[in-house]
Amino acid sequence: MTEYLRRVAPRHRPTVAVVGVGAIGTVVADALSARADVTLCRRGPSAPMAIDVSGDLHRVDAAVAATPDGLGPVDWVVVTVKAQDTRDIGPWLDALVGPATTVVMLQNGIGHAERVSEWVPAERVLPGIVYIAAEKIERDLVVCRDLGALAVATGPAASSFAALVDPRLSVRLVDDFVTESWTKLVMNSALNTLTALTDRTMEVTADPAVRPLFRALLAEGVAVATAEGARLPEGAAELFLARMDGLPRNSATSMLLDRRAGRPLEHNYLTGAVLAAAALSGVAAPTVALVHGLVDALDNRELRLALARELEELVAA
Ligand SMILES: NC(=O)C1=CN([C@@H]2O[C@H](COP(=O)(O)OP(=O)(O)OC[C@H]3O[C@@H](n4cnc5c(N)ncnc54)[C@H](OP(=O)(O)O)[C@@H]3O)[C@@H](O)[C@H]2O)C=CC1
Ligand SMILES: CC(C)(CO)C(=O)C(=O)O
C-alpha cells in the first residue's frame, strides 16, 4: 500500500466481545477499550459497568448487550465466565464466533480449548491464565485490587491480542503453557479450596493447623502436574507455598468470594481436574480427593441455600 493510501484508508478498529462480565471480564474489557470496540455481553438488564482500579473510578467505555440476538461475528471473543458456566454461553458463541474469530479463554484451570471445541477449533483459541485480583462488589461495579498480568500461549494470536491491551495490564507470552497452567492450577487447588472451606482469606496459609494440609495438597498437585508434562523445579511445592505467603493476607480468592455469595464453586475444574489427571496417570492424590469431596459437599449446601432463598423470594412476591 502506498503511503498516501495508508493515510486515507479507514483503519479497521478490532471488535471484541467479552462474555462473562464479572470481576476479570470487566478489568480486561476496560484494558481493551482504548484500542478496540468492546461489547460487554451480560445476562440480565443491559446496564454499563463501572470499575475502580486502585482508586480511579470510571465507566468502562463499551457497548452493552443483554442478549445475543442481532449480534454477528467479531474479531475477538474473550471468555471470562467461571469454567463451569462455559457451556451455558453457547448462544453467545453461536452468534459471535465466525470463521475469522479468535476466542481468548481467560480462566483458571487447564483444558481451555476443549471447553469451547464445539464452537471453535483449537487453533483459533488463545488460552490464558489470569494474575489479577478483582471483585464484583455490586451488580454494575468491579473493584480491581491488583492489575497484575495475563499469561497467554505464544503464537501469532498472542502478539495481536497483547497489542490491543493497555500496557498497564501486562500480557506475558509463554512458550510452555502446560507448565504455566499447571503451576497456577496446583496453587489454586490448594488456595482456593482451603480459603473457601475455612471461610478465611489468604492469611489461612500461615495457620499452623492448616499449613500441613497446604503442603500435602501442593505435593500431590506437583506430582500430578509433573506426570502431565509440567516442568517444575526441585522443591516446587515449598516454592509455591512461599509464593502464597507473599500474597496480601486479607485478600479473598475467587472461590471464597463465590462461597460467600452463595454461587456455585469452580472446584470441578480445579481439584477435579487434578483428580482426573491423577486417575489417568496413576499418581496417588488422596488428600486432593478428600478436600475435593468436602468442597463438593459445601457447594451442594450453598446451592440448596440459594434455591431456598429464591423460593422464599418467590413466595414473598
Ligand atoms: N476474581 C479474581 O480475582 C480471579 C479470577 N480468576 C479466574 O477468572 C475466571 C473469571 O472469574 P471472575 O471474573 O472472578 O468470575 P465472576 O463470577 O466475577 O464473573 C463471572 C461472570 O460470568 C457471568 N456469567 C455466568 N454465566 C453466564 C451466562 N450464561 N451468560 C452471560 N454471563 C454469564 C456472571 O454473570 P452474573 O454477574 O449475572 O452472575 C459473572 O458476572 C475464573 O476462571 C476465575 O477462577 C483468576 C484469577 C483471579
Ligand atoms: C491466585 C488467586 C488466588 C488470586 O486471586 C486466584 O487465582 C483466584 O482467586 O482464583
Give a summary of the structure in a few sentences.
This is 2-dehydropantoate 2-reductase. The chain has 317 residues and is of the alpha/beta class.
- Small ligands present: NADPH dihydro-nicotinamide-adenine-dinucleotide phosphate, ketopantoate
Helix and strand string, N-terminal first?
HEHEEEEEHEHEEHEHHHHHH
Top-tier CATH class of the largest domain = Alpha Beta
CATH architecture type of the largest domain:
3-Layer(aba) Sandwich
Oligomer: single chain
Unreliable stretches (pLDDT < 50, length at least 5) are none
Q: Number of DSSP helices? A: 11
Share of helix among residues? 40-55%
- Rounded to the nearest angstrom, the distance between the terminal CA atoms is 64 Å
Radius of gyration: 20 Å
Main sheet properties: 10 strands, mixed
Instruction: Output the CATH topology of the largest domain.
Output: Rossmann fold
Tell me how many strands there are. 10
Q: What is the overall shape?
A: globular
**Strand composition percent:** 15-25%
* Average pLDDT figure: 94
Q: In the residues, how many domains can be counted?
A: 2
CATH superfamily of the largest domain: NAD(P)-binding Rossmann-like Domain
Structural class based on helices, strands and sheet pairing: alpha/beta
Give descriptors for this structure.
317 residues; alpha/beta; Rossmann fold; N-(1-d-carboxylethyl)-l-norvaline Dehydrogenase, domain 2; 2 domains; ten-stranded mixed sheet; 10 strands; 43% helix; 20% strand; globular; binds NADPH dihydro-nicotinamide-adenine-dinucleotide phosphate; binds ketopantoate
